[in-house]
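> call design_seq(struct)
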């Protein structure tokens, strides 16, 4: 983890692009050190069970520290009471700003009311905090487009469209698929689902694709806390109930996250499918470019993953934080789509890319996100 932290810090320092405040994040950091002084920023992350959240937390912390701020970074191990207690403690300790990646986007109303009463600004990080007027800014990716990209990757893998989503006109009819969604208490899961279903629906309607189990609602497809073992168990149950225990006829699985993908793949291989796509393993999508899944993609086992460059996301959060702490208002690039039930939260959204085996080198290795050795081993070093 320490090495990942150092590497992430170097990558964050190296990445460019304009920040939410309109200027380059790196130049803003360089100019903010003297004014930051002893200002404390609280950073609340959901879990350390996913390498992406470790990288996110470290990147945000190091970016803020480079700008001269003191940082209290906490992980809550996917436990809601723990996260609420951590945020309470940050407020008590005198934090002037909070950056929060919520476990449950509806569970922080009380903490945010307290923060607002003390003039503490709140930035929702990658997961929108719901049902509160006291969310000041949101930094994330275009999560609807993430769902579109995942569904397009699945369609491409099944020969229904090309990589750009253009129909081939030669697809086999009646291809059976299954659908997985994220955790219902994560607002992003709904954006991913909607983008994916809107993209798949025409092909389900015309009979090109068939959801074999009939489980085609987000409630049926949801995976609580995005857990790999939960996804594996559901896939095993689907194989037993719908596919005679052997997966016969199953051609593809929509997966919204790499951990879920690995659980699905384990279940599929467990009944003798594959072990690779060339050998009959169904096409399985993913998200987050986790190193274990990147290796699976390189090995022809997992079909794809959505790459959300969290170095850039962390830089946007740091830039927005600097704006707030210097008395400015961060500049959003979306002021219409992220209604949290109480207000439309000003947002800064980043674009995403789809990674296939033949684009790992250009997107992940050449950009410095992972090294060639890490991809080969499937382990972050």
């Amino acid at each position: 983890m320490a090495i990942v932290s150092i590497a992430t810090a170097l990558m964050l320092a190296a990445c460019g692009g304009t920040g939410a405040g309109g200027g380059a994040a790196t130049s803003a950091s360089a100019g903010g050190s003297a004014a930051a002084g002893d200002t404390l920023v609280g950073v609340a992350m959901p879990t350390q069970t996913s390498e992406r959240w470790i990288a996110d937390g470290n990147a945000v912390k190091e970016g803020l520290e480079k700008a001269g701020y003191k940082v209290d970074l906490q992980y809550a191990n996917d436990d809601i009471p723990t996260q609420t207690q951590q945020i309470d403690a940050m407020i008590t300790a005198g934090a002037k700003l909070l950056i929060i990646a919520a476990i449950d986007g509806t569970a922080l109303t009380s903490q945010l009311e307290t923060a607002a009463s003390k003039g503490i600004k709140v930035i929702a990080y990658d997961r929108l905090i719901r049902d509160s007027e006291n969310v000041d800014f949101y930094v994330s990716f275009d999560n609807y487009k993430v769902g579109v990209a995942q569904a397009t990757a699945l369609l491409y893998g099944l020969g229904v469209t090309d990589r750009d989503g253009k129909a081939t006109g030669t697809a086999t009819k009646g291809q059976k698929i299954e659908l997985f969604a994220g955790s219902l208490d994560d607002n992003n899961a709904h954006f991913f689902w909607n983008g994916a279903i809107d993209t798949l629906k025409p092909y389900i309607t015309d009979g090109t694709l068939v959801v074999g189990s009939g489980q085609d609602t987000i409630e049926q497809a949801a995976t609580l806390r995005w857990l790999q073992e939960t996804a594996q168990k559901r896939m095993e149950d689907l194989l037993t109930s719908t596919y005679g225990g052997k997966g016969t006829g199953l051609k593809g699985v929509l997966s919204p996250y790499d951990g879920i993908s690995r659980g699905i793949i384990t279940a599929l291989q467990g009944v003798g499918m594959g072990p690779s796509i060339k050998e009959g393993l169904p096409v399985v999508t993913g998200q987050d470019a986790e190193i274990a899944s990147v290796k699976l993609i390189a090995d022809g086992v997992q079909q794809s993953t959505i790459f959300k460059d969290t170095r850039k996301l962390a830089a946007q959060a740091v830039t927005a934080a600097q704006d707030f702490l210097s008395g400015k208002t961060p500049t959003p690039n979306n002021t219409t789509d992220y209604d949290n039930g109480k207000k439309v939260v000003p947002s800064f959204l980043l674009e995403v890319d789809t990674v296939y085996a033949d684009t790992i080198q250009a997107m992940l290795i050449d950009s410095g996100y992972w090294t060639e050795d890490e991809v080969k081993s499937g382990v972050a070093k």
